Amino acid sequence: MASEITYAEVKFKDPLPSEEAKAPKEKSPPQHEPCKPPQWLLWLISGLLLLLCVVLLVVFFVVPHQQNCEEHKALPQNISEWLCAVRIAEEEERVWTCCPKGWKLFRTSCYYLSHDTARPWDASEKNCIGMGSHLVVVDTEAEQNFLLNWVKGRVSDQKEISNYCLGLNSQEVEGQWCWVDGTLYNKSAAFWMPEEPNFLNSEKCAVMQMGGNRASSEKKTWNNVRCSLWCHGICEAAAMKI
């Protein structure tokens, strides 16, 4: 007898959703673009920084230069004795230029040599200022030759080194030389000794060095020294014209 096969239709319910499926999906926070400063604010900040840089440059460079290179007053007019010389100016006009007694006239300037008294550089400059002048400013070869010949005639012992203060220093900025009357320093019109100036961080004052083993024909006599070194002052002031 043949066996019978019975078929039955079975329906299964949908499986229960998992816990992960039941939990609602979290919403991601809305993405915001970074806030950019306005263009005018960037320009304002840049302008303020530029202005600050200019102020710092003035404070560190211009102001010290003006303080060190200030002009000094002319010779006092109440001096009782003057020595005058006449010279021919332009268009053959006769001009009298005068210096106080004890001073030496060269072109349009008067010079005073403090040969018997030596002082530190600062004290020599103050002494000149007290006489209405300043330490000598040498800006031409003719003036350098004049000073050399004048000083040589006052040096008794040529073997001994003598220092004469020049109105040239670099107190504020290392290696930036400055004349005391505001005259611009011209390297091509300087008369430094060979390999001078050196030791710029400590030797910040200039002198004219005479004597020793120097040949009498040598024009380059400048040397930079410590400002505490004692030297003879050479003062200069504009001659009075009448």
Helix/strand-derived class?
A: alpha+beta
Under CATH, the topology of the domain at 113-235 can be stated as: Mannose-Binding Protein A, Chain A
Fraction of residues in helices?
A: 10-25%
Number of separate strands = 11
CATH architecture label name of the domain at 113-235: Roll
* Largest sheet, strands/sense/barrel: 8 strands, mixed
The coarse silhouette is extended
Helix count?
A: 4
What do we call the CATH homologous superfamily of the domain at 113-235?
A: Mannose-Binding Protein A, subunit A
Low-confidence stretches: 16-23, 61-72
Order of helices and strands: HHEEEEHEHEEEEEE
Q: Tell me, rounded to a whole number, the average pLDDT.
A: 79
CA-CA gap between termini: 163 Å
Radius of gyration: 42 Å
Level-1 CATH class name of the domain at 113-235: Alpha Beta
Topology:
Layout (H helix, E strand, L loop, with lengths): L18 H4 L16 H30 L13 E7 L5 E7 L3 E3 L2 E11 L1 H10 L3 E2 L5 H12 L9 E8 L8 E2 L25 E6 L11 E4 L5 E8 L1 E2 L1
What can you see in these coordinates?
The chain has a domain of 123 residues: Roll (Mannose-Binding Protein A, Chain A), CATH 3.10.100. It contains four helices and eleven strands. The longest helix has 30 residues. It is extended. About 8% of the residues have low confidence.
